[in-house]
Amino acid sequence: MFTTYRSPPGDCGIFLFDIFCHISAFIPIVYPIWWGIAAWPVDSFVENNDFTGKTVIPFCTSASSGIGDSGQLLEEMAGTGDWQEGERFRSGADEADVQEWVNGLGL
């Protein structure tokens, strides 16, 4: 069973992600990057869930910071799942940039 970090009322993104985890073998972990590490709410989500049998692909957004070791650090926190190399999207990334990356994943 997956649990979630509960964000302020009205933010349904975490709730929808929670449901997605139950029906998919592919789990995207999406987060803002803060100086090369994932934003702290992501840590809570990763530490409190079991990703056994799931392929996990971290990706983040940032205007300046690179992805750093954030994917590796999240994988270590999780301790389960098949974690793949992540991707960082610049603030000006558009749908075509993301689609190109997704197509290259071979999912």
Mean pLDDT: 79
Annotation field: number of helices? 4
Radius of gyration: 13 Å
Distance between the termini: 24 Å
Largest sheet: 5 strands, mixed
What is the approximate shape? globular
Helical proportion? 25-40%
The unreliable regions are 1-16
> What percentage of amino acids are in beta strands?
15-25%
Helix and strand succession?
Answer: HEEHEHEEH
Give the tally of β-strands.
5
Task: Kindly name the structural category.
Answer: alpha/beta
Overview of the structural elements:
With 107 residues, the protein is an alpha/beta fold. Helix content is 36%, strand content 23%. The protein contains four helices and five strands; from the N terminus they run H-E-E-H-E-H-E-E-H. The protein has helices at 13-23, 40-47, 70-78, 95-104, and strands at 26-34, 37-38, 55-62, 82-83, 87-90. Strands 1, 2, 3, 4 and 5 form a five-stranded mixed sheet that branches. A hairpin with a 2-residue loop joins strand 1 (26-34) and strand 2. Helix 2 (40-47) packs parallel to helix 3 (70-78). The radius of gyration is 13 Å and the shape is globular.
